[in-house]
Amino acid sequence: MSAAAPSDSTSTSVTSTGADAPAGADFVYLASQSPRRRQLLTQIGIRHELLLPGADEDAEALEAERAGESPDDYVRRVTEAKLVAALARRERRGLPPAPVLCSDTTVALGGRILGKPEDAAHAAAMLADLSGQDHRVLTAVALGLPGGRVLAAVNVSHVRFAEIGAARLQAYVDSGEPMGKAGAYAIQSQAAAWIERIEGSYSGIMGLPLFETAELLRQAGFEV
Predict the structure, then answer these.
(1) Are strands 150-161 and 28-30 parallel, antiparallel or unpaired?
(2) DSSP letter string, 106-166
C-alpha cells in the first residue's frame, strides 16, 4: 500500500497489514473516551459505538513512555497497543464483529514527548516551554477489521505558539482545561488565541485527522 507524499507542513503515512477482509458492518467501534473524536466521526457521517476499557483495564499504562523513544515511534506504538487491547475487549465481551477504531495524539517539542500533564504545575511548565515556539502534533489512527486486517495512518501537523503571558498561562491552567490533553492544551479551547500558525490538519490536532481516517474507512468499505 502506498504512502501519501509528505509536504513541508504536514506528513502522513498509511499502512496496511494482514489479509484483506471486508468490514462486514455498517458501524465502527470507537475505542476512545474523547468526546472530540466522537464529534469528528459524527461530522463525517460514521455511525459508531463506544468500546471503552473496563474497570479491570489500566488504559493509562498503555501511554507510558519508553526511554529513548521518538515521538513518531511513541504515537504509533501506543495506538497499536490500544487497538490490540480494544480487539481483545470486543472478543471478551462477545460483541458482534465490526471494525475497531483507535487513535492517539502526542505533542512533540523537538525530540521531547509532551504527553498529558500530571498536575497543574506540570501543565504550566509544558505551556511555558511551548510559549513562542514551533511544535509538532502527531496523531496516529488504526482500524482493525474482522479477519485480522489492520489499516493505519499517521498525521503530523505543525503549530506555532505566540508568547504566552504569565497571567494568561496561569488562568488557563486554573481553568482545568489542560488536564487530560497532550501538550496541556486543546486547540478548540481558549488556547486557540495563542496560535499564530497551523500547517497541517486541524482535526488531527483535535485528535482524529479526518482525511486519513476517511481514507482508512473507505478502504474498509465505508462510503465517506
Answers:
(1) unpaired
(2) EEEETTEEE-S-SSHHHHHHHHHHHTT-EEEEEEEEEEEPTTS-EEEEEEEEEEEEPPPPH
pLDDT for the residue numbered 60: 83
pLDDT in tens, 23-76: 467 999 999 999 999 999 999 999 999 999 998 888 888 999 999 999 999 999
Active site residues: 104
User: What does the alpha-carbon distance between residue 121 and residue 117 come to, in Å, rounded to a whole number?
Assistant: 8
Q: Contact at 8 Å (CB) between 12 and 154?
A: yes
Residue 199: phi and psi, rounded to 5, are: -125, 105
Q: Residues 6 or more apart from 95 whose CB is under 8 A from it? A: 29, 51
Nearest CA to 103 out of 137, 69, 127 is that of: 137
- Please tell me what DSSP assigns to residue 188: T
How many whole angstroms separate alpha carbon 102 and alpha carbon 114?
Answer: 20
Q: Please report the domains of the chain, with CATH numbers, ordered by start residue.
A: 11-219 (3.90.950.10)
The whole-angstrom separation of Cα 69 and Cα 63 is 12
User: What is the reported pTM?
Assistant: 0.87
Q: How far apart are CA 21 and CA 38, in angstroms?
A: 25
- Count CB neighbours of 2 within 10 A: 8
The rounded distance, in Å, linking the Cα atoms of 45 and 71 is 31
Distance between CA atoms of 131 and 142, rounded to whole angstroms? Answer: 31
Residue by residue, DSSP assigns 164-182 as PPHHHHHHHHHHTTTTTSG
In terms of Cβ atoms closer than 10 Å to its own Cβ (0-12, 13-18, 19+), residue 29 is buried
